[in-house]
Design goal:
Blueprint: H1 3-10, E1 12-19, H2 25-35, H3 47-50, H4 60-65, E2 73-78, E3 81-87, H5 96-101, E4 107-113, H6 120-132, E5 136-141, H7 150-161, E6 164-167, E7 169-172, E8 180-183, E9 188-191, E10 200-202, H8 219-234, H9 240-244, E11 248-253, H10 262-272, E12 279-280, E13 286-287, E14 296-304, E15 313-321, E16 323-325, E17 329-332, E18 337-340, E19 344-347, E20 352-354, E21 357-359, E22 363-368, E23 377-379, E24 397-403, H11 409-421, E25 426-430, E26 436-440, H12 443-457, E27 461-468, E28 470-474, E29 489-494, E30 499-503, H13 506-515, E31 521-522
Parallel strand pairs: 1-3, 1-4, 4-5, 5-11, 6-11
Antiparallel strand pairs: 2-3, 7-8, 8-9, 9-10, 12-13, 14-15, 14-23, 15-22, 16-21, 17-18, 17-23, 19-20, 19-22, 24-26, 24-27, 25-26, 25-29, 28-30, 28-31, 29-30
Helix pairs in contact: 11-12
The protein binds guanosine-5'-diphosphate.
InterPro entries: EF-G-like_DII, EFG_III/V, G_TR_CS, P-loop_NTPase, PrfC, RF3_C, RF3_dom_3_sf, RF3_GTP-bd
Domain Tr-type G: 10-277
Subcellular location: Cytoplasm
Length: 525
C-alpha cells in the first residue's frame, strides 16, 4: 500500500442521514454541501423543492412524483476529509434500498425534529444502524421553533431507542427565545442570530459565561445552567469508546434552516466519524480498507433506468479496499467472470460525472446491463471472495400479482425473477396454487415494479393489495402443517422455498403462537 493511497483512504468519511420525513434532512444536507463548496445555492439537493431535474436522468415515475426513487450519493471535501453522504429516502419512497444503503456506510447521523421527538421511520432506520453497531450521531433540529423540553427529548431518545445519549451541547431558550447553545464539548457558548464576531462567547473554569453579557441575566440561561448541572451529575459519562461502538449517541442541538449549529456539528462529528471500516467475507476473513492491497467492493443497490433511452441500470458499489481506476479489470465473484470497467459514474448533488479514481470508502456506480445482483462482490485481484450476504428485511406490505394478459405469462415470470434478483421487491408464492405474492417495505416498490414490468418486459400487471401483514419465518418447518394456514395466518413460500406465515396483524400472530406453541417463528430485520 503506497502511503498516498493510505492517506486518501483514511481521509474518507462515509455516512447516511436518517430521519423521519420533514425533520430537516434535506436542509441539513444542503448546509453540509454548502460548507464543502459542493453546491452554491441551497435548494439544489432534491428536485422536490425547486423542480430542477436533468430530464434525461430520472425515471418517468420520479418526474411524475417529483421525488427521487432511490438514494443518491453526495461527495464533498471539508477540512482535509472527503465526505460521502448517502441519502436515505423517506415517506412513500421508503424502500428496502433505504435499509440497504445503511449497509454501505460507516456511521449515521440521526436528525430529530425537536417538536416531534422520535418518529416511526427514524426508529426503523435506527434499528438497522444499531444492529450493525455503527456510531450514531444525533442532531436535534428546529430549535428556532418551540419544541419539547430538551431533557424530555433526551429521555425519549434513551427510552424509545434504547441507546445512551450524551448531549454535546445544550440549548439556551427555544423558539422565539432561542439564544444559542451551550457547547459542553468545545467549552464555549454559540450565540444564535448574532454578529459573526460575537458568535462564540467564552466560559470560565466553573462552566459559567466568562464575560458580562445580557444573556447571563435571562431565565433561559439559568435554566440551561441548571439542566447542565443535572447532566453533569446524573447524566451519562462521556465515552469515546462507547460512541465508537454505537452504544452512546452524542447529541447536538441546532436549527438547520437558519444554519445554526450545523457547522459546529460537522466539525465535531468529523473528529469522531470512523474512517472506512473493514468488512467481513463469507469465510470470515476481514478485508481491511488499507491492509488489503487490492480493490474490492460490494453492490448494495441497483438503480434502474437512470437513462430511459438506454434502459441502463447503475449498480452502486461501496469500495471496501484499495483503489478503483477506470479501465481496470474486475472480477465478479459470483460468476468468476472478469471484465474491463470503462464506464463508471460518481454521484454528486446536481450532476453525475465520470469517475476515474476512487478509493475505499467511496461509492461508485457501474453501468449494468443485467450483470449484477444486490450483494454481489467485485474484486480487482486474482483471488476472488464473497462479502457477507446483505440482510433481507421483513416486508410489511403485500400484493397478489397477475399478468393482465395470460398470454404473457412467460415474460411475466422472467420480469419478476429479474426484479426479485435485483432486490427491487420480495417474492412469495402460495403453496399449491403458486399465486405470486410480492412483499415490500414501502409502497413505492410496488409502483416501481409495475412501471418496470410494463416498460422493460412489456407486461401489464394486475396488483391486488392484500394489505399489511406480519411476515414470520419458521425455525422448525418440519412441524408445520398445511392446516395451520388460514386467511389470518396465510402460509406461503419465499423465493428460496422457505415457509413463511403472513399474519393479518399482531393479534392473529399471538393467537397462532398460543395455539401452536411448538412452532418457532422469527422475523428478519
Ligand atoms: P426532510 O423531509 O427531512 O428532508 O426535511 P426538509 O429538510 O425538507 O425540511 C422539512 C421542512 O422543515 C421544510 O419546510 C424546512 O424548511 C423546514 N425546516 C428544516 N429545518 C428547519 C429548522 O431548523 N427550523 C425550522 N423552523 N424549519 C426547518
Amino acid at each position: 500500500m503506497t502511503s498516498n493511497l493510505e492517506k486518501d483512504i483514511l481521509a474518507r468519511r462515509t455516512f447516511a442521514i436518517i430521519s423521519h420525513p420533514d425533520a430537516g434532512k434535506t436542509t441539513i444536507t444542503e448546509k453540509l454541501l454548502l460548507f464543502g463548496g459542493a453546491i452554491r445555492d441551497a435548494g439544489t439537493v432534491k428536485g422536490k423543492k425547486t423542480g430542477k431535474f436533468a430530464t434525461s436522468d430520472w425515471m418517468e415515475i420520479e418526474k411524475q412524483r417529483g421525488i427521487s426513487v432511490t438514494s443518491s450519493v453526495m461527495q464533498f471535501d471539508y477540512s482535509g476529509s472527503r465526505i460521502n453522504i448517502l441519502d436515505t429516502p423517506g415517506h412513500q419512497d421508503f424502500s428496502e434500498d433505504t435499509y440497504r444503503t445503511l449497509m454501505a456506510v460507516d456511521s449515521a447521523v440521526m436528525v430529530v425534529d425537536a417538536a416531534k421527538g422520535i418518529e416511526a421511520q427514524t426508529l426503523k432506520l435506527f434499528k438497522v444502524c444499531k444492529m450493525r453497531g455503527i456510531p450514531i450521531f444525533t442532531f436535534i433540529n428546529k430549535l428556532d421553533r418551540q419544541g419539547k423540553e430538551p431533557l424530555e427529548l433526551i429521555e425519549e431518545l434513551e427510552e424509545v431507542l434504547g441507546i445512551h445519549a450524551y448531549p454535546m451541547n445544550w440549548p439556551i431558550g427555544m423558539g422565539k427565545e432561542f439564544l444559542g447553545i451551550y457547547d459542553r464539548y468545545n467549552k464555549r457558548i454559540e450565540q444564535f442570530r448574532t454578529e459573526e464576531e460575537e458568535r462564540f462567547l467564552p466560559i470560565d473554569e466553573n462552566g459559567e459565561l466568562a464575560i458580562d453579557h445580557p444573556m447571563k441575566v435571562t431565565s433561559y440561561y439559568s435554566q440551561a445552567m441548571d439542566d447542565i448541572m443535572l447532566l453533569n451529575e446524573a447524566g451519562n459519562a462521556y465515552s469515546e469508546e462507547k460512541i465508537r461502538r454505537g452504544e452512546l449517541t452524542p447529541v447536538f442541538f441546532g436549527s438547520a434552516l437558519t444554519n445554526f449549529g450545523v457547522q459546529t456539528f460537522l466539525e465535531t462529528y468529523l473528529q469522531f466519524a470512523p474512517t472506512p471500516q473493514p468488512r467481513i467475507t463469507e469465510d470470515e476473513q476481514y478485508i481491511d480498507p488499507v491492509e488489503h492491497p487490492e480493490f474490492s467492493g460490494f453492490i448494495f443497490k441497483i438503480q434502474a433506468n437512470m437513462n430511459p433511452a438506454h434502459r441502463d441500470r447503475i449498480a452502486f458499489v461501496r469500495i471496501v479496499s484499495g483503489k478503483f481506476e477506470r479501465g481496470m479489470n474486475m472480477t465478479l465473484s459470483r460468476t468468476g467472470k472478469s471484465f474491463k470497467v470503462t464506464q463508471s459514474t460518481q454521484f454528486l448533488a446536481d450532476d453525475r460525472e465520470t469517475v476515474d479514481v476512487a478509493v475505499a470508502g467511496d461509492i461508485i456506480g457501474l453501468y449494468d446491463t443485467g450483470t449484477y445482483q444486490i450483494g454481489d462482490t467485485v474484486v480487482g485481484g486474482k483471488k476472488t471472495f464473497q462479502f457477507e450476504k446483505l440482510p433481507q428485511f421483513t416486508p410489511e406490505l403485500f400484493v397478489r400479482v397477475t399478468a393482465k394478459n395470460v398470454m404473457k405469462s412467460k415474460q411475466f415470470h422472467k420480469g419478476i425473477l429479474q426484479l426479485v434478483q435485483e432486490g427491487a421487491i420480495q417474492y412469495y408464492k402460495t403453496l399449491h396454487t403458486e399465486e405470486v405474492i410480492l412483499g415490500a417495505v414501502g409502497q413505492l416498490q410496488f409502483e416501481v415494479f409495475e412501471h418496470r414490468m410494463k416498460n422493460e418486459y412489456n407486461v401489464e400487471v394486475r396488483m391486488e393489495p392484500i394489505g399489511s401483514k406480519m411476515a414470520r419465518w419458521i425455525e422448525n418447518e418440519e412441524d408445520v402443517k398445511e392446516s395451520m394456514s388460514s386467511s389470518r395466518s396465510m402460509l406461503v413460500k419465499d423465493r428460496f422455498d422457505n415457509l413463511v406465515f403472513l399474519f393479518e396483524n399482531e393479534f392473529a400472530m399471538r393467537w397462532f403462537a398460543d395455539k401452536n406453541e411448538n412452532i418457532k417463528l422469527y422475523s428478519l430485520l
